Amino acid sequence: MASLQDQLLKAGLVDKNKANKAKKEKQKQTKHNRKTGGKTVNEARLASQQTQLQKAEHDRQLNRQRQDQSNQKAVMAQIRQLIQLNQIECESGEIDYSFVHENKVENLQINEQLQKQLSQGRLAIVWFKQDKRRRYGLVPTVVAEKIAQRDAGSVVQMNAPDSDVDEDDIYADYQIPDDLMW
Fold first, then answer.
1. pTM
2. Long-range contacts: 165-168, Cβ < 8 Å, 24+?
3. How far apart are CA 123 and CA 159, in angstroms?
4. Exposure of 55 by Cβ count < 10 A (0-12 exposed, 13-18 middle, 19+ buried)?
5. Which ranges in 3-42 belong to alpha helices (H)?
6. What is the CB neighbour count within 10 angstroms for residue 144?
7. 80-89 pLDDT per residue, tens
8. How many folded domains does the chain comprise?
9. Are 155 and 144 in contact (CB under 8 A)?
10. What is d(CA 13, CA 163) in angstroms, rounded to the nearest whole number?
11. Are 148 and 154 in contact (CB under 8 A)?
């Protein structure tokens, strides 16, 4: 069977001078390899492998970023769902309740009962985006803790619950006079 070089010569694709030149170059390379005792490094192959490694690392980073964004969107959807399912309506509020969020003073219209629950730590104020606008809502403290586990920045205000106050105290509505002597 004839070599590839012979076949190319017969087909007329390569002339005899180029074939001899390639043969001499190959012999030089073989001789050099025997003298140095090592293999020649194909620089183009190394460069190709290097670019493949860089591309693979770049792709991994992009995939990691996409995964992080996807996870963050899922967490925000969970938070939005928790708020919508557990939000306490405060539309008929006559008290303007002020609080600070991101160095801005914000207001909620609430009634006296909701204000009391906020101060006792039974309710918390959370924020979420709806229609590209920032909205605030009141949720029970248990729900606010679940939201804080997912994203602490979504909870605006959560007071510590009062442990001294007894909910079943029958005398809670009565005030003790200041001038009472025992």
1. 0.55
2. 165/120
3. 8
4. exposed
5. 4-11, 16-36
6. 24
7. 888 888 888 8
8. 1
9. yes
10. 95
11. yes
The answer as to whether 33 is a domain residue is no
The pair phi, psi for residue 134, each rounded to 5°, is -85, 125
In a domain, 10, yes or no: no
Gyration radius from the chain CA atoms: 38
Q: Please check whether residue 159 lies inside any domain of the structure.
A: yes
pLDDT higher than threshold 60 for residue 72? yes
**Span 47-65, mean pLDDT?**
93
The pair of structure tokens assigned to 145 is: 């803790």
Query: Rounded distance, CA 83 to CA 77, Å?
Result: 10
Strands (E), 95-154: 95-101, 104-110, 123-130, 133-140
Asked if residue 115 belongs to a domain, the reply is: yes
Query: Which range of residues forms the domain containing residue 76?
Result: 49-164
pLDDT at 89: 82
